[in-house]
Write a structure and sequence with these properties.
Blueprint (H helix, E strand, L loop, with lengths): L6 H8 L28 H4 L2 H10 L2 H8 L2 H8 L4 E4 L6 H8 L3 E6 L2 H13 L7 E3 L5 H4 L4 E6 L10 H13 L1 E12 L1 H6 L8 E3 L4 E9 L2 E7 L5 E6 L4 H11 L3 E6 L12 E7 L2
Helix pairs in contact: 1-7
The structure holds S-adenosylmethionine (SAM).
Length: about 280
């Protein structure tokens, strides 16, 4: 039995050399017709290191912590959670917070670059040695072992899945990795507002101040292409599937989750009437 599922993968995840390496991909690749790029697997090409490094250096973690508060930590404590699998580790923000709060945390992500950055961030922020595993959600159980009290999929990550089959598969994999009374916490942007209110809702979101501006550049029922602009005028994009809130709730219950509670906003990036984000808490039993 494999008791340390991250062991092999940590070596793998720290391998990519982002600076000065010929394998580094510096520009995003969307081809001639960016709005046709609607593929689940494309996320690894969208999070190029220069984009992620810029994001992380501008959105400082303290500000992000202030804006998010203890929402997730309080929720997990309320549920008596001890072990957590962070399936969308990214650069490690939530994993590090969870470790600092004393949760037994394993950090997974499909992008090796992200995990390498998360590992570095863990060391920088309080000497945490992140237990990282490179794993795509569609085949999570193949690469991550064990059962967890909670799985977190945060930072509007689930939106990267472009087919219903992939979404069902990913949710089923999350379900299978939870203990019988475990919970899944998954957040998403409020795409209903963007889809239904059309251009009026196409406001620019400013993250933690005015440093990074984010706005939907193109929207239809199958794609929300977000534009990220930084103070040095550099621009990046992410192609995302615009998840409707009730659709996600339905999928969760169809996959087997018994009870789903949905919260509006925990962070205020825009002071409108509608929440910018929803957080779903789904109970396995
Ligand atoms: N939770 C982090 C945060 O809030 O800062 C990171 C969020 S980032 C928007 C989304 C992350 O999900 C990326 O690190 C990406 O590599 C990962 N991801 C997207 N699709 C994935 C998939 N199919 N399997 C595994 N990871 C995936």
């Amino acid at each position: 039995p494999q008791t340390e599922p991250w062991r092999d993968c940590r070596a793998r995840a720290t391998l990519p050399q982002r600076k000065g390496s010929s394998t580094v991909q510096s520009a995003q690749e969307f081809g001639d017709n960016p709005v046709e790029v609607r593929e689940t697997g494309h996320y690894t090409e969208e999070y190029v290191p220069s984009f992620v490094e810029k994001w992380d250096s501008l959105i400082d973690w303290e500000k992000r912590e202030e804006s998010e508060g203890n929402f997730f930590i309080d929720l997990l404590r309320k549920w008596g959670v001890k072990s957590v699998l962070d399936v969308a580790t990214g650069t490690g923000f939530h994993s590090v917070r969870l470790l600092s709060a004393g949760f037994d945390t394993v950090s997974a992500d499909g992008s090796a670059d992200m995990l390498a950055m998360a590992f570095e961030n863990g060391m920088k922020q309080g000497d945490h040695i992140l237990r990282v595993v490179q794993a795509d959600w569609r085949w999570l159980n193949r690469d991550v072992h064990g059962e967890y009290d909670a799985i977190v999929c945060l930072g509007n990550s689930f939106t990267h899945l472009f087919s219903e089959r992939d979404r069902r598969k990913a949710l089923a994999e999350f379900y299978a990795m939870l203990k019988h009374d475990g919970i899944l916490i998954l957040d998403q942007r409020n795409y209903d507002a963007i889809l239904d209110d059309g251009y009026t809702s196409k406001h620019t979101y400013y993250y933690c101040g005015e440093d990074v501006s984010v706005a939907p550049e193109y929207v239809d029922e199958g794609l929300c292409r977000m534009r990220y602009e930084f103070p040095d005028d550099s621009v990046y994009h992410l192609n995302m599937f615009p998840l409707r809130k009730d659709y996600v709730r339905r999928l969760m219950s169809e996959v087997g989750f018994q009870h789903i509670e949905t919260y509006g906003d925990f962070q205020h990036t825009y002071r409108g009437e509608q929440p910018d984000f929803f957080v779903h808490v789904a109970e396995k039993e």
